Amino acid sequence: MSLKLFHIVFIAVSTLMCLVVGLWAVNEYRVSGAASSMVLAAVAFAGGGFLVVYGNRFLQKFRTLGIAGLLVTGTLGLPADALACVVCLGNTESSLRDGMNAGIFALLGFAGFMIVSFAIFFIYLARKARSASSGFHVPHVASSDGGSVHA
Known about the structure:
Blueprint: H1 3-32, H2 35-61, H3 66-76, H4 95-134, E1 140-142, E2 148-150
Antiparallel strand pairs: 1-2
Helix pairs in contact: 1-2, 1-3
């Protein structure tokens, strides 16, 4: 996949996500009446509008892809697997939730391990540099005229 096509797909998916979040926030506003839901909907729709304008400018700049490529990209981006999972639909006692939590904790553990490893490595380098600079001395070498010279 070329970088241009990836960029178009990313803009399209981001625009659709803004639309979905905006519609969800409007529905949440109807249910709960919270003003923050309406603010979220306005921000999501504004972001989606910005992405449409940006995508249009990007397409004008790169016309070589054509509308056919955009339609193919759009149809490939609609698999049934992208639909909401059971946790999103409200079933919090699912085994899917346990697997998702295990995956999150595994990734957090790996990220924490890598951060601690880098920190230990940089502390080691700092100590090594400090010990190398404190133990460094310039030996005196006698010159041919009888004086001493630093090597």
